[in-house]
Task: structure prediction
Amino acid sequence: MVVNIAVLASGRGTNLQSIIDNIENGYIHDACIKVVISDVKDAYALERAKKHDIDAVFIDPFKFSNKSEYEKELIRELQDYYIDLVLLAGFMRILGSDFVKFYEHRILNIHPSLLPAFKGLRAQKQALDYGVKVSGCTVHFVTQDMDSGPIILQECVPVLDDDTEESLENRILQKEHVIYPKAVKLWVEGKL
Ligand code: GAR
Result:
């Protein structure tokens, strides 16, 4: 059976690209990205999807009276595609409890820190400001608490004395592109 995947992304979509590439090269098999959904109209992630003949959908959160209505629309859209697994890839919104319950155990997220350290926005800056010597990235199940669900995989990188937010971000991103496809493969193979 083929696992139907949806990717939710708000930005440039390099993690989306790493999943696409690893499906196309056969590392992740029996899985298909059916749709990429963004809350940002001009997110480059949508362009990446189109380049690979994947449906790209912008759902404007500001069109809905509240978060719950927006998420109902998200669920409706995902149901149209018979989605089994939802991947958050730089999706910069916190999902509410109805959505999380609906897809319980079926939503994964990647975060650019070694959770539970440095949750939330600009995790790389938080790591630099704190002065840690090692940071990294985490793939985890999404639960109702932000950046807190059960951890699936982590990878670490050194934090160098002359690092900027950008240089650390790039070093971590290289690892993100390795562990996210790996975690997706494990999920698809029923190994989690
Ligand atoms: C990635 O670094 C991802 O870990 C982070 O956003 C970036 C998206 O990059 N996610 C979060 O901070 C979620 N809390 P991408 O659009 O190139 O995949």
Q: What stands out?
A: The chain has a mean pLDDT of 98.
